[in-house]
Amino acid sequence: MPTAHPPPFSTILSSTPQPSPTDLTPIYQGAEAHLYRTTFLSSTTPAALKIRPSKPYRHPILDRRLTRARILQEARCLQKLVKEGVSVPALLGVDWEPNADNGSSWLVMEWVEGGPVRVQLERWERYLKGVERERGLAMGEGIEKSEEEKVRGLMRRIGGAVGGLHRAGVIHGDLTTSNLMLRPKSAEAAVDEEGEGSPSMEGDIVMIDFGLAMQSAQDEDRAVDLYVLERAFGSSHPRTERFFEEVLVGYKESYKGSVSALKRLEDVRMRGRKRSMIG
Ligand SMILES: Nc1ncnc2c1ncn2[C@@H]1O[C@H](COP(=O)(O)OP(=O)(O)OP(=O)(O)O)[C@@H](O)[C@H]1O
Ligand SMILES: [Mg+2]
């Protein structure tokens, strides 16, 4: 009886679904990663391709090992978080270049509609600046109740997302408003608003960019994650800083272990203040 041999590994690899190379729209080029909008399996399924390019100044073997380790780490993290129901894009594929001269590694994930929270908050700050200038008010004085409620709602959802992440035992490692996406609930709401009015803050928070993430059961790590986010709000969106407590309300609601993490946050803040006093 003939034994059934599996096809050679190289055939399996070359037939694994790959992002469509003819359909790549660059959306972001950083030092560490390049992001493209592409499609996956069908031309109507948008996907995000994240490439970690090889670094020519690094030794090729070391370079390949590092980019591969980092993309794998990020991919494993996404996979685990999707399984646990945390709000992150689903992982669709991951691979790396086996050739030593080109150490690029890549992953493909679900495309998240909408945009980074940063963009929406920057629009909001611009809008408020206009209001303040028009009425001769000091910074932050032009925030009406309805505007405050909108931002508080957004901040609470952000806290809820981070609580879900920590509940799953993962620390993000780089929580900024660029790494939080705001996905509108409906297609109509997704229409890009470029106007000068107050921008919409409706939608779900989806966390991205797990390149620096790690598993941890330490309150200290969770507290530092929150502190990094607090500092990001303070430095990038000064008008939102006084509503940061709302992030912590959302965090408490979604994560049982929040009490000890929040207690630890007090210590981390204290250390941060001391450090900035010393200079
Ligand atoms: N799944 C996605 N869907 C839509 N847009 C995305 C997605 N992932 C990333 N982006 C866009 O690409 C930008 C950069 O992505 P990301 O934050 O992962 O890269 P990075 O900051 O360079 O990563 P790293 O810090 O790991 O080097 C994001 O701010 C976002 O605008
Ligand atoms: Mg990022």
Automatic annotation (TrEMBL):
It is found in: Chromosome, Telomere; Cytoplasm; Nucleus. Keywords: Activator, ATP-binding, Chromosome, Cytoplasm, Hydrolase, Kinase, Nucleotide-binding, Nucleus, Phosphoprotein, Serine/threonine-protein kinase, Telomere, Transcription, Transcription regulation, Transferase, tRNA processing. Residues 1-21 are annotated as: Disordered. Residues 11-21 have a biased composition (Polar residues). It comes from the Eukaryota. Residues 21-279 form the Protein kinase domain. Its main location: nucleus. It holds the Pfam family Kdo. It is an enzyme of class 2 (transferase). It catalyses: L-threonyl-[protein] + ATP = O-phospho-L-threonyl-[protein] + ADP + H(+); L-seryl-[protein] + ATP = O-phospho-L-seryl-[protein] + ADP + H(+). Its EC number is 2.7.11.1. GO terms for molecular function: ATP binding; hydrolase activity; protein serine/threonine kinase activity. The keyword Protease does not apply. One of its GO terms (biological process) is tRNA processing. One of its GO terms (cellular component) is chromosome, telomeric region. Component of the EKC/KEOPS complex composed of at least BUD32, CGI121, GON7, KAE1 and PCC1; the whole complex dimerizes. This is EKC/KEOPS complex subunit BUD32. It comes from Aspergillus mulundensis.
